[in-house]
Model the fold of this input.
Amino acid sequence: MEIQASIFENPMPRLAANISYLFTEFDFLDRFAAARDAGFSAVEWHFPYDHEKAELTQRLADNGLRCALFNLPSGDWRAGERGIACLLDRVSEFEDGVGRAIDYAKALNCPRINCLAGVAPDNDESRHTFVTNLRYAAQRTAEAGITLLIEPINTIDIPGFALNRSAQALSIIEQVGVENLMLLLDIYHVRIMEDDPAAIIEASHGRIGHIQIVDVPGRHEPGTGDIDCPALFDLLDRTGYEGWVGCEYIPATTTAEGLGWARPFLP
Done:
């Protein structure tokens, strides 16, 4: 089902193509041009570290794109690790990763970096380690003029992930107590955890640094599930959100065929 343009009363979201999910019909470095051709002015992706900074910078420049977001180094992704920020025995590795991420962010002119908490037991040690590491990373990123984000992940896709709900993330943000630490609100994870995305947007006003849009069930493009994405976009307008909205979904068919919902927001 494709959302018709007429139901969007305030077509204001600035969309960034998540090229870890979109345009996978192409080799990674060719996805920049594919995103440009589809009308996107920004891209985001999971990790830049397998490519030289100069190569990525050139791809962005050649295609008139901005880099909206990427993640801190998050352990051995292929082995199933999903972040190391809450692991006491990985603090040195985490700190090294912060420096590496800042180096890439400066080169790519990327304003936001996401910190994945990781999988760990829910105990005082992991919680304390996470907060301590966030304070370190927030200070380093603040010095570089970069916003640090934390993202709640649902317990079905990643059992044991240390950060699951937006209220939990907001509590940690308050505990860390620095202005450049903000919430990455992924609508997919919010909805899977049976929270109301609209209520969380309203409750988190001013503390959301990035939004990722997707429909549920299926994790496909808006219009394929039961989330009222037009209403969420309207709410973002009303709350004054001016950041990027990342399209981090799995296309139901091909990327191009599934972009009908986005046409009102793309040049």
Observations:
- The domain at 5-258 is CATH 3.20.20.150 (TIM Barrel).
- Strands lie at 14-18, 42-44, 66-71, 112-115, 147-150, 181-186, 208-213, 244-247.
- Residues 1-11 have pLDDT under 50 and may be disordered.
- The chain has eight helices and eight strands.
